TrEMBL record:
GO terms for molecular function: ATP binding; glutamate-cysteine ligase activity; metal ion binding. It comes from Duganella sacchari. Belongs to the glutamate--cysteine ligase type 1 family. Type 1 subfamily. SUPFAM superfamilies: Glutamine synthetase/guanido kinase. This is Glutamate--cysteine ligase.
Amino acid sequence: MPTLLTRRLALLADEKHRAVLAGGLRGIERETLRVDRAGHLARTRHPVAMGAALTHPQITTDYAETLLEFITPAEKDIADTIAKLDGIHRYAYSKLGDELLWSQSMPCQLPPEEEIEIAWYGSSNLGTLKHVYRRGLALRYGKAMQCIAGIHYNYSLDERLWRVLAEHEETAGKPLTPRSFQSEAYLAAIRNFRRYSWLLMYLFGASPVLSAGFLRGRPHKLEALSADTLYLPYATSLRMSDLGYQNDAQSGLSPHENCLDSYVAAMTKAVNQPYEPYAKLGTKRDGEWIQLNTNVLQIENEYYSTIRPKRVIQTGERPIQALCARGVQYIEVRCMDVDPFEPVGINVATGRFLDAFLLFCALEESPTTTPEQSARYTENFARTVKEGRRPGLTLHNGVEEVPLPVWGAELLERIRPVAALLDTLRGDSVHGDTLEAQAAKLQDPELTPSAKVLAALRANGKSFSAFALAQSEKHAAYFRSHPPSAEEASYFDNLAAISLAEQAEMEAAPQTDFDDYVAAYRASNLCQSRLDCD
């Protein structure tokens, strides 16, 4: 009996449908700290020569003033996306002076909290809102956590693909509109991602160590690798463990992803529900705003999820509003560590694997999820990030405990036909090749990035800071030896000039009272339900 996956693959392999499978877009957001030559957090402001962080489409800042974020344009082929990311890096280095871009997800040795500067976006109401939101993050999570960096992978399929599938499949109950079918299909992909994303952590996790000062005295069960370095011997990604992004307020937040309405309802509740410890702090201190509100989440983006359903927002629109009004447009994968061995933090082969993995998640059968199943997915993920390379480690596949390498190999075999179809479209074997490379990691844990990081540390003094600085210097040498061409420099100089002019225009325009501005922003997060779902 053909499965849903095999039926969909056969349909998309048809000559008349191949064009829709070749569509879709890939984008990357890469975060990276600016550091000085000693590997310490830079004390300088965001370089004006790069443009305005508030309005620049490709070069901005994340939570901290020194945490750069590079955003590529969306491209059909991940090789083009990474080439664009390389171009952004090369331009940035032409404006950095003696500073370096940190090569790791986990931050460098950090100064005291009060000396870590929160990102600043100018004096306009929008700029102030973004800054106050980050003040709230510092208050709720501490500034050290704001210095963690990652790779976000934005992925979409051609909207025509969903229409092709809808035409050939029956939906239970009332027929879905094309927009609703697409949204629910992306939610189904997200459910599968949660089932299987532990595999990404094993294959690509690259943060098994961290600087001893990062935890700021928090209790932990890490081991000392050296005087300045803590680790877990079999960890893959401490960044994605409870030592990285974690918070008591969010511990009970599990947006229900069985349909878009239930997801939106959970997020709407979180941005409107007061949380007592935050309420005790208030929104202002000595007349100064310290957080946007006292709710579980100040805004939707505060939710630290491994994956999100997304829609490009319009000016003044909130993510919840966009999803309600126009449905899901793409998904954002947020669990990928920065690869410290790659100058831009990710390579094309990893992108090819993500493309095959995400297409598999989108096309494979995806039953709705119970709370018990969701808890099991979370547990599998947690085991993998903290001890994924431990010999004998098992995960629960819904029926029984199975060795991680065994289940991983089974998953790769299920993904293989997806990779083969993508390669047929291209006329090469790049997706199949990257599956073979990942299969080798399952057979030999020493081939994983996390094991390679530990091997490099043990071979060079066991210091995370020293290893990370050496990698940062190596990447800097690469970018500085490949400066942007005159055409590339002109393109980015123009973007910088436009962004600075746009920010100046915003700041020169009449501003409403900021308290009223925040009130209006908060009032815009209510969304009415459109669909019924279990």
